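Entry details:
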Amino acid sequence: MSRPNSAGSTATDSRGFRRIIAEDPDWRLTLVPCLSNLCLQSIVKNIEEKPIFEALSPIINDFVQETLSTSLPLQVTVNLISDGVYWKRCCEQRWDICDLAHYGHSWKRMFLERHMENIIELFIPDVTEPKTVLEMVPLCKDYVKRLDISQLLPPIKEPQDEEEEEEKEEEEDEDGSKLTSHTDHDGPSMDHFDFNILLNKLTQLEELHLVYRVKQCGMNFEWKMFEMTDRDCESLAKALMSCKTLKLLKLHQSHIEDKKCRLLVKYLLDHPSLRELNFSHNLIGDKGARAIGKLLNRSKLETLNMCDNNIGGPGAKAIAHALSVNSTLLSLNLRLNCLRDEGGQAIGKALLNNNTLLHLHLGANRVTGPTAIALSKVLVQNNTLKSINLSCNNLGVDGGIALGEAMSHNTSVTECDIRLTEVDEQSASSINQVVWTNQSSEQKRHARQSETK
């Protein structure tokens, strides 16, 4: 028995089986979702109410990480989802460039560090609630090892009418003489984010990169946007002292002068873990350099970068005095200061008693022949120094001859930069030849050490 074969009807074929003819001609059995997929979709949908993430098998775990919404609250995801595909998706969705090199090749660490950086960089004093930052601490303190803060916003200026501004600018007593203006102050009047509320809570923090500036300030530009206040300096100094895990501090391009440098050093003198200090591109002079000298005597610094400051001969002498007894510093960068021969010769004399420094940069310091001669004595005696940079100084012919003669007795220096120093070609050639020989010997030594391992 058979019936008309129409859409949605049943029919009996020649074998006696009944078959269903679908109304949708494109329907296939494969379109029906598997029960397991329906279960996974339910897990993803209800992950906040029923976080069973850890109980899943690795294959199912990967599926869920690829499916979960990246907008889930961090309070849910941080403690629930380990490093993996989910955090990679979060990073790539939020930032165009995602280089894992600075984050221990961890997507989760990258996201949490950069998220914390963004919160600090957009923090507006007296407007943003401090709890915005502090709420993140329990979630990220075990992951944040490095913070690179590229801007710090000042408070918002309240508009004032002309009468108020005139009153603040100048007041007169009964005799018509001027009184002290209410706007008179030493340095800028704006304070920034207070690191004292945060750093002691980040128990894994090892690197802090800071610059006091405002990016994309446009027509609202003021010089005060590019420097720290006295209160900023004091609160930061105390915060640094409380951060016992910090190994690297970079505080650059922030108009730090002698007073602020000395205050920062005061709180860093006995820091237990600080190994690298970078105060480059600031306004630090001789008084600040003397404080740095004290720091070298008390701390275990391995790298010191004071590039592009206002350090002169007296300041260089203070650093040199510390260098003569220091046994931990490996790299010293004094490029773009004004040491002159007074400071250059002091550094050279100090290195006669130093057997640990590996890298020295004295480029663009207005040093001349006497400094070159002082350093030539070091090159003869010292077999520790690996690189020396004297570029952009007027060493002259005599200085070049002294360096060339000294290098002929040296076996350790593999980099010697004497560009733009007025050194004669013959001396430059002989120096470069020794450098190439030392480089070749160093490479062979490393090759032998690799073979023995």
In short: The CA atoms of residues 317 and 346 lie 6 Å apart. The radius of gyration is 33 Å.
